[in-house]
């Protein structure tokens, strides 16, 4: 996963158009990552070039599971907050003087209506991994508040996925099973899942 992240992002940084936020001067390639929103502490993006359905061992696509790499870049206050919390927990802060943000690898269970951060990676300003955490647990999308930053972020991701289902399938390394290839989109889990906060609008 580290090799994938560093290779993909580093190449994109040098060769792709980018979005720059003056407060942290971190460039994120806009032809790979789609910006969703910013808060006073961070800027949220998802990788719309790499997101897609999980590929099963037989090479077919699992239409119940959506995998999405994301990035959040930090401002200086958030960076110091992360460093301080690591010190409190007696964790190493080596390299954290150039902490820039994090990468979250999300898994959406479209049937159960949950999302899980299966891996969270702290990134320095060269997008190299500093540390990672695999302890994330599934969270019910229906329990997220419409005012929650995560709710808005997940909703944007799923909305894009619904509008670009065919694109994700076409560029996937897997293939649809014979059964799934005959299904209408309206019968697929992605179509049926409610967007987070939808019932609160």
Report on this model:
With 201 residues, the chain is α+β, with helices and mostly antiparallel strands. The chain is 28% helix and 33% strand. It has helices spanning 2-15, 76-88, 149-163, 165-171, 178-181, 189-192; strands spanning 18-21, 26-29, 33-38, 42-47, 52-55, 61-74, 99-109, 114-124, 129-133, 139-140. A hairpin with a 4-residue loop joins strand 1 and strand 2. The longest helix has 15 residues, at 149-163. It starts with a helix and ends in a 9-residue tail after the last helix. Mean pLDDT is 88; it is low at 1-24.
Outline:
With 201 residues, the chain is an alpha+beta fold. It has helices at residues 2-15, 76-88, 149-163, 165-171, 178-181, 189-192, and strands spanning 18-21, 26-29, 33-38, 42-47, 52-55, 61-74, 99-109, 114-124, 129-133, 139-140.
């Amino acid at each position: 996963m580290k090799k994938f992240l560093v290779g993909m992002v580093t190449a994109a940084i040098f060769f792709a158009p980018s979005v720059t936020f003056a407060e942290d001067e971190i460039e994120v390639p806009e032809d790979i990552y789609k910006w969703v929103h910013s808060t006073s502490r961070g800027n949220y993006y998802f990788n719309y070039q790499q997101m897609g359905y999980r590929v099963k061992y037989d090479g077919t696509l699992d239409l119940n599971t959506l995998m999405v790499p994301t990035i959040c870049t930090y401002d200086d206050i958030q960076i110091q907050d992360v460093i301080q919390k690591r010190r409190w927990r007696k964790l190493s802060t080596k390299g954290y003087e150039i902490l820039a943000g994090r990468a979250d690898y999300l898994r959406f269970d479209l049937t159960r209506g949950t999302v899980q951060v299966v891996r969270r990676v702290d990134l320095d300003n060269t997008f190299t991994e500093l540390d990672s955490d695999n302890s994330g647990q599934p969270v019910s999308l229906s329990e997220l508040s419409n005012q929650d930053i995560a709710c808005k972020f997940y909703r944007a991701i799923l909305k894009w996925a619904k509008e670009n289902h065919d694109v994700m399938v076409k560029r996937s390394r897997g293939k649809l099973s014979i059964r799934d290839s005959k299904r209408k989109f309206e019968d697929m889990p992605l179509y049926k899942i409610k967007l987070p906060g939808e019932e609160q609008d």
